[in-house]
Backbone:
């Protein structure tokens, strides 16, 4: 029995026992970017909506990220350089070498997310096709930023910078897609344009877009925005001074105020700027012949038949009548009685 128990027991050491032991793998802590992994749009965010063709969301995201970063360096290069310089000065110490403090600082930096390297643009994946959202941070101002991109694209002989992106829509501020949330966002966004002193009367138009949302109706949104604009301003749908753009998506809403060249710039649609859709020519209406009374038709037929005859008579030259010969008197040859 003792021998059998020894045979059944596993060896305590040796090469075979060592190979069966699980090896412990050392892994460095992963640096997770809390901004790049944000999966939802939150109240207080600002950003840019973009549309593309179905199935092109990934390629559109990549080309827009490159385009946005290039324009950010062009428009905000000095401010970004100042931010980088301030971050570098904070990392510099008092010059004393303290190896233990440096190690502790490096370990602490590895454990916390790199908030100082917060990107200017990061995309948020949405549960809807053909739509992309890029969240932005200061110093990027979405309206002026997008308008500069579209203006450059609309210049003569401008190179085409995008292949998959269609329309861009900047959002100054996002909030909850409720009546109170909409009014709160509207008060903050509309104040610099409609509530300034001295008062300046402006003509405006409201253009809402609703996706995957069924709580607030279109007319409710328009009425709440118009009430927030307040008195002293006029609604003009054809030639407004300012356009109030409202985007509602599931449980979030956003508002921005755009200049009146929005329609002239193809509604910020980059694809339409480079390859405009041909306009359809209006079709000519074919009018059905009107019914005429039988008497009128009969008179028209008679006039048409008589007209050629009169024409022929007019074309025949007048024949000169021959001179009449003098009549010769006929003598009565009767025999005398």
Residues:
């Amino acid at each position: 029995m003792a021998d059998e128990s020894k045979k059944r027991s596993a060896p305590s050491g040796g090469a075979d026992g060592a190979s069966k032991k699980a090896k412990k793998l050392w892994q460095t802590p992963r640096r997770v970017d809390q901004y790049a992994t944000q999966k939802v749009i939150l109240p207080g965010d600002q950003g840019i909506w973009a549309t593309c063709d179905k199935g092109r969301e990934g390629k559109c995201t990549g080309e827009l990220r490159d385009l946005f970063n290039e324009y950010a360096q062009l428009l905000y290069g000095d401010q970004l350089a100042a931010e980088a310089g301030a971050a570098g000065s904070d990392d510099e110490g008092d010059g004393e070498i303290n190896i233990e403090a440096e190690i502790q600082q490096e370990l602490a930096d590895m454990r916390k997310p790199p908030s100082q390297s917060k990107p200017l643009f990061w995309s948020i994946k949405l549960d809807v096709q053909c739509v992309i959202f890029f969240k932005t941070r200061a110093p990027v101002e979405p309206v002026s930023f997008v308008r500069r991109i579209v203006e450059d694209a609309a210049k003569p002989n401008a190179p085409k910078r995008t292949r998959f992106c269609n329309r861009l829509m900047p959002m100054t501020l996002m909030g909850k897609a409720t009546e109170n949330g909409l009014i709160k966002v509207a008060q903050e966004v509309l104040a610099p344009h409609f509530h300034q002193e001295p008062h300046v009367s402006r003509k405006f138009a409201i253009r809402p877009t609703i996706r995957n949302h069924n709580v607030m109706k279109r007319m409710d949104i328009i009425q709440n925005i118009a009430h927030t604009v307040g008195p002293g301003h006029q609604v003009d749908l054809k030639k407004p001074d300012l356009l109030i753009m409202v985007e509602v998506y599931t449980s979030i809403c956003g508002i921005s105020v755009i200049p009146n060249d929005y329609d002239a710039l193809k509604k910020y649609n980059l694809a339409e700027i480079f390859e405009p859709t041909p306009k359809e020519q209006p079709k000519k209406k074919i009018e059905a012949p009107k019914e005429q009374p039988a008497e009128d038709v009969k008179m028209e037929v008679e006039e048409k038949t008589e007209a050629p005859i009169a024409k022929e008579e007019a074309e025949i030259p007048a024949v000169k009548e021959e001179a009449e010969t003098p009549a010769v008197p006929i003598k009565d040859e009767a025999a005398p009685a």
Observations:
- The radius of gyration is 44 Å.
